[in-house]
Design goal:
By secondary structure, the chain is α+β, with helices and mostly antiparallel strands. It contains four helices and six strands, in the order αββαβαβαββ. It has a four-stranded mixed sheet with strand order 3-4-6-5. It has a two-stranded antiparallel ribbon with strand order 1-2. The chain is elongated, with a radius of gyration of 32 Å.
Length: 175
């Protein structure tokens, strides 16, 4: 069909003439409402972006001579980040002559991976970049992650513990 005839048909029906496949021989065109088409495309794109989960890589930095309490505090933070769905990059920074003992950094990263094995898995291997040694942990799938159960407080009422004014509120005890 000639182009001028297709334009007249589109104008008569109140649609736009849109070229769908310009590289085809002959080129393929469609009659459609272009504004509505663009709106639906944008809507599909928004919905696809909404369903995507953005995974961040968070970094925790350690030193080879870190104390036990500091190590445990960093491990708790890493566990929270993994539980939140983020990847965690654990980095051991070497300063000065510490670089001559990379085995200390390797042991530290292995210890961290061991303490976080119930919250995440290791991605790749240990990587040494200049004066940094890295390890990346990714979170476990939601169904496999162990969620700690919170102990519920038990509420009891006893006749002798009631309020003398006859208040309906029970007295609570932690057992």
């Amino acid at each position: 069909m000639p182009l001028y005839q297709a334009r007249e048909i589109a104008k008569a029906q109140g649609y736009d003439l849109v070229e769908v496949a310009p590289t085809a021989v002959p080129p393929v065109c469609r009659l459609l409402d272009y504004g509505k088409f663009k709106y639906e495309q944008a809507k599909k794109e928004r919905n696809s972006r909404k369903s995507q989960k953005i995974v961040l890589i968070r970094e925790i930095r350690l030193r080879p001579k870190i104390g036990d309490h500091d190590f445990e505090a960093k491990a708790r933070v890493a566990k929270k980040l993994l539980a939140g769905g983020d990847k965690v990059k654990i980095t051991v920074l070497f300063r000065g002559r510490e670089i001559t003992h990379p085995d200390l950094g390797r042991k530290l990263l292995q210890r961290m991976a061991e303490s976080l094995k119930d919250a995440g898995t290791i991605d790749g291997q240990l990587a040494m970049e200049e004066r940094r040694m890295n390890l990346v942990l990714s979170p476990l799938p939601v169904s496999k992650a162990k969620i700690p159960k919170v102990k519920q407080e038990v509420q009891t009422t006893d006749a002798k513990d009631e309020n003398p004014q006859g208040s309906p509120e029970p007295v609570t005890r932690n057992r």
